[in-house]
Write a structure and sequence with these properties.
By secondary structure, the chain is mainly beta. α2 packs antiparallel against α3. 11% of the residues lie in helices and 38% in strands. Strands 49, 51, 52, 54, 55, 57, 59, 60, 62, 63 and 64 form an 11-stranded mixed beta sheet that branches. Strands 66, 68, 69, 71, 72 and 80 form a 6-stranded mixed beta sheet that branches. It has a 5-stranded mixed beta sheet with strand order 10-17-15-12-13, with no helix packed on it. It contains 6 helices and 89 strands.
Length: 1241
């Protein structure tokens, strides 16, 4: 089990510690040299058994020293070395008992043999495995409280040995030696401390330092509270009559018995002692209805200890003929809406293999799902009917449960609903009115070509009336749609502040009292304190902690009264704080009592809020002389609990506070609170659509729903009503309300809940939702214990470390909306236990902490930590930056990176017994820099994770990286066949030609960190074939080579070769010198430049069919004789080796300007045209001025002849002939002189 795996891991730890069965002793040497003493340690692949290899490392402080290895009892050194660096490695191959003993190391300068260093600290080398392993036991037991005493007994089968005790968590400080008492030794801890907890083992050895095998690991717990146990039912907590069930008890403590309890029974049902603890299972055979109930398991101790027992999780065992029926609900409601689907949610309080959804109107309609959420659409009205569901469990896959209560979905069939028809009719009528209005206007304009002022006024009035009707219809349409709006915007008030008192006289607080006011809003500017009956007292500016102090000093009769405070922001004043009442000069302030509505059969918490810290609280009930409960405060308040509310618990309650020490000083009793159990509706379903942990400015929507019809809803924050939603009679079925906070502020956090009601009956309060607004406090750190990689079925603890004490912590997992766990603590950290993790528990976790007294102001989210549930570490990746092919003397960084963070890395080099470098778990980048690279750094490298905790998880090495150093051999040449320009899909060959035989050639590409390919041909050249090249293969290539006899010591880079994979060579660039403007008598040089050498350029001029000029250097001289040089130019090029392949033309370049008479002629033409434009504009202005002066006279004449001309105007509107045709009407003849003539414009 766990102990064996810890033993295996413990053996690996010996590799990296000085105390690998090595005890530092004093040999009494007095010969002190003039050089500093070296550092001396041991490195081995495992603990030193017979036949194993051990390396003894000696580190000096200068280069080119002579290292001497001495052994106790020998005058001459047993070995010496002259290494090139500062470290000498003395290897002891094939360990034998003769290798045991005490060793030291000394150094001296090679040229001065008399100048010696001080001797190193001695190392005692013990060969293990020659004797049988001992047994290690703890008395009185392995779990003890801090301050208690403990004896660890190490017992061996051989007498007269020396015993040693090791603590794996701190090997350097925990190596204890004891002389034996017969065949055993006792290691005594007089007063245990927390840091004494850990994994212990022991061994023994004789006078010749021949040691035994290691004992089994014994874990010692030092804690004041027992770790929590977990109980699981296998195969399921729902058991069929006559079946067997196994209750598995899990906990982090090993070697301790377990007891199984059933609720309602005092004695344990079954016991598991330490001999049978490996199974950790309680069996119930042939279960009956009497076995149903709530079970829990506890640790069974055989010794006395002061450790407190914590609460344990429970498992409810259900014994049925059939599994109990599930619950079925609809979200967001049972009423379909246009183009919206409904989710049917099936819920069961235990694991389920599969859910089945049935449609009662169709026997063949059935769906199967694992999570129980069925999405129902209403296409063509097929979704509106009655549904029910059932399920089956994994233990009995052939037995289906009873069906749930039926649930009917109602709503429109497709799109033909009354609301839809009404809206479409309104839209269609508006469109028809607008079209009709437009046609009427056009008809009047066409028939009446000369409208007078009265007709224009009538037409404008008609247009205004029509537009008024349209606006009214639009408003009505908006009101109709407003009834269907479901979201109620929450107008959040300025959060009310908190008021409390502080004193420096705990036994007599009234001698010096200070009132403090604090606001959860960060924008508070100042505070004001008020007293009932006297009004305003004082104003204080807000400090950095958004609080202010109001000193009262020694209380007098003038101070008695009720106090409250406000916080002021720039544009708002907060609600008043809770009132603090001072009732006398020698009596404590009156507390405030409150509680949620009592519910029969459920737990009720009664909150008593005091005003001073460190007080004791007492709860009283009217009619009972003795106090009901007494508690010590947590902060300035206490919570009294009634475990199960019954009729006998109804009545009037009050609370008082008193000082902690005698003689007690009491407060006045609080105002009484009456508890009455009323009949209530079931509590609603309450949640947020997104995560309740939000950043400032986020949008939050609360959803409160119930299957009851026509209900009104109330939203509460911290017990106070803040918003409501009236009932809707328009839609039958379940009721729901959505409360919206458009932009969350710092003070909007808190505990939200909702209730619903009809005319007289209220519901129970919903489960609270803790809304946490982050980014107020510094972010915490999240660490995993024992590490971020854990085996399936094991436990992992996530510790969230905050910056302040007394906070509440929440653990979040990426991909889940609701926090996984909450925890309140008096310290500044919280431990979240992930019990019996599985593969689906892998993911990114983060945490946040927040204060519960001030609107749940929270911290920034911690940096996420990835938890891996696997039996093998994922493979890391090793790469070099900027490249694994590095010139001599340059710097390179080897990066070992993988998906697991919080784990160290170790870098290995091939054919070297020691690790190159080591990163601890505090570093996540895994960078191994190598500066001023030389031939000693070449070779093959690999890396792997290096966890700093005991773990049996397998570790995989990374890929192998070959580090090549260039600049040691002559450079090769690189050619491309058929050429540097290749069409996509064709084949290509790189030819790298070196100067030495028996070489390995390496092909490189600029921008890539690894070589593309390596070859070891028999001759001087390597051909690298690239089939079916693509556009990604374009780039700059080079090659190097190194001798097979000296691998990775490579030549200089070849000349760089740029390759283009394209149908056409890339287009060139075209520029003009000195500018694109011609000057009189001056020429312009066009410069065409391309990216490839060995090309021929051609220049083309728009309007000319044949190319104008050819050039090998790309320079073209252009003159402007007779203006022929003006125009657009472009150029292209072709390879001289491939004359049939032309590049794309360059971007066009325009040359402008003039030379001689042409320019003068153009200028004269422009002047003439500009003059004509000015004349036309002036003439048009004169005409407009004349017509403007005539306008008042025309209006006067129009008003004088208005009555006479109306008849003529109407007759003209009715005529269908030409406007110039004369009428034969007498009236028209007689009135002909009064007809207006058109006014020319």
């Amino acid at each position: 089990m766990t102990l064996n795996r810890l033993g295996e891991r413990a053996a690996m730890l010996w590799t990296f510690t000085v105390l690998l069965f090595c005890i530092r002793l004093s040999l009494g040497m007095t010969s002190i040299g003039q050089l500093p003493k070296p550092i001396f340690w041991i490195q081995a692949e495992t603990y030193p058994l017979t036949g194993c290899n051990v390396n003894i490392l000696c580190h000096g402080w200068l280069q080119d020293l002579v290292f001497m290895l001495f052994k106790e009892g020998y005058a001459e050194p047993v070995d010496y070395q002259i290494p090139t660096g500062t470290v000498a490695i003395f290897s002891i191959a094939n360990m034998t008992p003769e290798s045991e003993g005490v060793y030291i190391c000394r150094t001296h300068i090679q040229m001065l043999p008399t100048l010696w260093s001080e001797p190193s600290n001695p190392l005692k080398l013990i060969v293990a495995g020659l004797y049988p392993k001992p047994t290690l036991t703890a008395y009185p037991g392995p779990i003890m409280a801090p301050g208690e005493s403990l004896n660890l007994r190490c017992q061996a089968p051989i007498y007269g040995m020396t015993f040693a005790l090791i603590r794996l968590e701190d090997l350097k400080k925990s190596f204890y030696r004891k002389r034996p008492i017969k065949n055993e030794a006792y290691f005594f801890f007089r007063a245990l401390k927390i840091h004494d907890a850990g994994h212990y083992l022991c061994f023994y050895y004789d006078e010749s330092y021949r040691g035994s095998l290691l004992s089994d690991i014994l874990k010692i717990w030092v804690t004041d509270t027992f770790p929590k146990t977990w109980l699981l039912a296998q195969p399921s907590p729902v058991v069929q009559m006559g079946q067997n069930v196994s209750l598995w008890c899990r906990g982090p403590v090993d070697g301790v018995g377990l007891a199984l309890y059933k609720k309602g029974e005092d004695k344990p049902l079954q016991l598991l002692d330490t001999t049978s603890i490996d199974d950790e299972s309680f069996f119930l055979n042939n279960v009956t209805y009497s076995d149903a109930g709530i079970y829990s398991c506890h640790y069974l101790l055989s010794w006395k200890t002061s450790i407190r027992m914590t609460s344990h999780n429970t498992v409810e065992l259900v014994v049925v003929d059939k599994p109990p029926k599930p619950s079925l609900s609809a979200w967001p409601s049972t009423m379909f809406k246009l183009r919206k689907a409904i989710t049917l949610q099936h819920r069961v309080p235990h694991p389920v293999l599969e859910f089945s959804l049935e449609w009662e109107e169709r026997a063949t309609f059935q769906k199967f799902l694992v999570d129980g959420d069925f999405i129902i659409s209403n296409a063509e009205g097929k979704g509106t009917e009655t549904y029910s569901c059932s399920y089956r469990i994994e233990a009995h896959p052939n037995i289906w449960s009873d069906r749930s209560e039926p649930l009917k979905l109602m709503g429109p069939a497709g799109f033909l609903t009354w609301n839809y028809i009404l809206n479409e009719a309104i839209r269609l009528s508006l469109i028809m009115q607008l079209v009709a209005l437009l046609l009427v206007v056009l008809w009047i304009r066409w028939k009446c070509r000369r409208l007078r002022i009265r007709e224009a006024w009538l037409l404008g009035t008609a247009q205004g009336v029509t537009m008024l009707f349209i606006v009214t219809a639009l408003l009505c349409c908006g009101l109709c749609n407003g009834v269907l709006t479901e979201e109620t915007e929450i107008i959040m008030p300025t959060p009310k502040p908190e008021l409390w008192a502080e004193t420096n006289f705990p036994l007599a607080p009234w001698k010096n009292l200070t009132l403090w006011c604090r606001s959860p809003s960060g924008s508070t500017k100042e505070f004001v304190l008020l007293k009932d009956g006297t009004g305003w007292i004082a104003t204080r500016p807000a400090s950095e902690q958004v609080r202010a102090a109001f000193p009262l000093g020694a209380l007098t009769q003038s101070h008695t009264g009720s106090y409250h405070c406000h916080s002021w922001e720039e544009m708002a004043v907060s609600e008043p704080s809770e009132a603090l009442e001072l009732v006398g000069t020698d009596i404590l302030p009156k507390p405030v009592i409150s509680a949620s509505p009592p519910i029969r059969g459920q737990k009720l918490q009664i909150r008593c809020k005091g005003w001073l810290a460190g007080m004791e609280f007492v709860l009283y009930k009217e009619g009972v002389q003795e106090p009901v409960q007494q508690l010590h405060a947590v902060g300035r308040e206490a919570f009294f609990t009634i475990q199960r509310m019954e009729d006998k618990d109804e009545g009037n309650y009050s609370c008082r506070t008193h000082t902690e020490k005698r003689p007690f000083k009491w407060s006045e009793p609080s105002d009484p609170m009456e508890l009455v159990i009323k009949e209530m509706y079931p509590k609603p379903f309450f949640k947020t659509w997104a995560s309740p942990v939000v950043t400032p400015g986020a949008r939050v929507t609360f959803n409160c729903s119930t299957p009851q019809q026509h209900m009104s809803f109330i939203l509460y924050k911290d017990g106070s009503e803040i918003a409501s939603s009236d009932r809707s009679w328009a839609s039958p079925g379940a009721s729901a309300a959505h409360f919206l906070i458009i932009s969350v502020g710092t003070g909007d956090g808190g505990n939200y809940s909702c209730r619903y009601y009809d005319f007289a009956i209220w519901s129970e309060p919903s489960d609270p939702v803790e809304l946490v607004v982050t980014e107020f406090y510094p972010k915490p750190t999240l660490l995993a214990h024992p590490g971020p990689v854990v085996l399936p079925g094991k436990n992992v603890t996530l510790r969230c470390q905050g910056a302040f004490q007394g906070m509440r912590f929440a653990l979040l997992q990426e991909g889940t909306q609701v926090p996984l766990q909450f925890q309140s603590t008096s310290g500044n950290s919280a431990d979240f236990l992930l019990h019996t993790v599985r593969a689906e528990d892998s993911g990114n976790y983060s945490c946040v902490y927040y204060e519960t007294t001030m609107s749940n102001r929270g911290s920034h989210l911690s940096k996420p930590i990835m938890i891996w549930v696997t039996d093998t570490f994922p493979k890391p990746w090793l790469f070099a930056e900027p490249s694994s092919v590095v010139p001599m003397g340059q710097n390179v960084t080897l990066w070992c990176q993988g998906p697991v963070h919080g784990v160290g890395y170790i870098l290995h080099k091939e054919r070297e017994t020691t690790s190159v470098q080591l990163w601890g778990s505090t570093s996540n980048d895994g960078a191994f820099p190598i500066t001023n690279i030389s031939g000693a750094n070449i070779g093959r490298y690999s890396c792997c994770y290096h966890p700093d905790w005991t773990s049996p998880i397998k570790i995989q090495p990374s890929n192998t990286l070959e580090l090549i150093v260039t600049g040691l051999l002559p450079k090769p040449s690189l050619l491309a066949q058929p050429g540097p320009i290749v069409a996509p899909g064709e084949n290509m060959t790189f030819q790298c030609q070196g100067e030495l035989p028996d070489s390995t050639f390496v092909l490189l590409k600029e921008g890539t960190q690894q070589p593309l390919e390596q070859q070891s041909p028999s001759g001087y050249r390597a051909d690298f074939w690239m089939p079916a090249v693509r556009g990604d293969d374009s780039g700059v290539y080079s090659c190097v080579y190194y001798l097979d006899s000296a691998p990775f010591a490579a030549s200089n880079h070849s000349d760089f070769l740029e390759i283009w994979v394209t149908d056409k060579p890339p287009k060139p660039s075209l520029s003009a010198w000195p500018s694109t403007m011609f000057k009189l008598g001056k020429d312009i040089t066009l410069q065409c430049r391309g990216p490839l050498p060995g090309v021929e350029f051609v220049l083309e001029h728009d309007g000319e069919e044949a190319p104008q000029q050819f050039s090998e250097d790309g320079d073209f001289v252009i003159n402007n004789v007779e203006g022929k040089g003006i125009g657009n130019y472009s150029c292209s090029y072709r390879l001289q080796a491939y004359p049939d392949i032309w590049s794309e033309p360059s971007d066009a370049l325009e040359l402008v300007g003039a030379a001689g008479p042409a320019a003068q002629e153009c200028t004269v033409g422009n002047i003439v045209r500009s003059s004509l434009i000015v004349v036309v504009v002036v003439a048009l202005g004169v005409v407009l001025a004349i017509e403007w002066k005539k306008w008042p006279r025309l209006r006067t004449r129009d008003s004088e002849t208005d009555g006479r001309d109306q008849t003529i105007a109407l007759e003209e509107c009715n005529q269908e002939g030409e406007p110039a045709t004369n009428t034969s009407s007498p009236s028209s003849v007689s009135q002909g002189t009064s007809v207006e003539l058109p006014v020319p414009v």
